[in-house]
Amino acid sequence: MPDLTDGMAPADAVSAYLEAGGDPTALAASLFDLGWGSPNSTVVWTDIDGDGHLDFAAGLTGAPHAQGIAEDGSVYLWRCQDGAYLRAEIAPPRPDFGPPAIHEARDLTADGLPEVIVAYPLCGAHTCFAQFAVYQWDGVDMVDRFQGASDDMPFPELVIEADDPSSPAAIEITATGIGSVGAGPYRTWSRIWTWDGDARAFVPGEPVIEAPRFRIHAIHDADDAYLRGDLEAAVELYQRAIDDDALLDWPTAGARRQELAAYAAFRRVLSFLAGGDAPNAQAEVDKMAPGAGASAEAYTELARRLLAGYADSELSEACAAVASFARESPDAVLAPLDFGYANRMYTADDLCPLPGS
After folding, report:
1. DSSP letter, residue 214
2. How many domains, the chain?
3. Within a domain: 273
4. Cα separation, 154 vs 188, whole angstroms
């Protein structure tokens, strides 16, 4: 039996080991003991090509560099055929990505053969991403059946949705967050890849954003409803941002809640005026006036100026006055809405747009 530590490159050592009759199940543990397994990679011991013989696949690092560090790597498949193991590099290195790792192997297309899910990691100072691949045996080679990018999703979590074993599974990947305090509260979102039989590929659907957990994200939803002209929904969503104790504040409970409530009330005034409902706008301003507090007073002043400007002219001119005030007092008006670079940035012109703009 060959010694895995006899100086051969990892892939060559594995080939020699298997050809000499070594036990693949024992080999799996040895790879990680030797530091040859790609980080976070599993090993696969299953029938990849449907010939009745178990095959072996592993994500391996490359040969160590002069400094003893192996930065590249590949996913290899050893197919058992006629008593021999045929090696193929099924997931070679990709520029700018780390060593590819096997996520898992399972039948995703309901054809009776397992596909191999591979992740190519890409990590920065605070956050990691991954480009996924799904390798399928096509009768000759392993072919990547994964379409579209996944490397725009920070700290991705992959889940297989397979309710019906007789139908192809779906691949759901969720972006879970950015590992930097400066990013602010993160709103998770996901994409689902489904099997397209004609294209013979897993194709991505549209992004799906989670329901708001943080108060600022409820504000964003309300702003979006206003911009698309759904004023009734906007008014309700702004009220939720004011009242809902279940919404999370950032970075601690209660932080900036008063300012966001005042901003939401101001935007309720704007929504009422955009719908021609001056009486309800006046009633909203009247509710804002008592005890607004210094941190929220700027938004109360915005609401007063907006209502007064609307009474004297068109809404567009009233909004121009609001934007002018915001440019003069950015620390009081814009800074409370800044929740880090993972969230939208507000300008003076964003405070009082017209619906549909």
Report:
1. B
2. 2
3. yes
4. 9
Which residue's structure tokens are 């309800």?
Answer: 280
By CB neighbour count within 10 A (0-12 exposed, 13-18 middle, 19+ buried), where does 143 fall?
A: middle
pLDDT digits (tens, 9 = 90+) for 107-149: 999 999 999 999 999 998 899 999 999 999 999 999 999 999 9
Identity at 316, one-letter amino acid code: S
The residues with which 44 forms a beta bridge, in sequence order, are 57
Q: Which amino acid is at 259?
A: E
Residue 291: pLDDT above 70? no
Q: How many CA atoms lie within 13 A of 120 on its CB side?
A: 22
Strand boundaries in the chain, DSSP class E: 43-46, 55-61, 73-81, 84-91, 101-106, 115-123, 128-137, 142-144, 156-161, 170-175, 189-196, 201-204, 208-209
Pair (40, 72) in one structural domain: yes
Pair (174, 235) in one structural domain: no
In this structure, is residue 1 part of a structural domain? no
Q: What CA–CA distance (Å, rounded) separates 256 from 352?
A: 20
Helix or strand holding residue 219 (H, E)? helix 215-227
Structure confidence at residue 1 (pLDDT): 45
With contact defined as beta carbons under 8 Å apart, do 281 and 256 qualify? no
Tell me: the pLDDT tens digits for 84-114? 999 999 999 999 999 999 999 999 999 999 9
Per-residue pLDDT for 72 more than 90?
no
Three-state secondary structure call for residue 18: helix
Domain coverage including residue 230: 215-350
Which of 183, 209, 235 lies at the terminal end of a domain, its last residue?
A: 209
- C-alpha distance across the termini of the chain, in Å: 73
Residue whose structure tokens are 């209660």: 254
The Cα 354–Cα 326 span in angstroms is 16
* Strand-pair partners of 293: none
Q: Do 225 and 184 belong to one domain?
A: no
Place of tokens 């780390």: 98
Which of these three, 188, 209, 230, is where a domain ends?
209
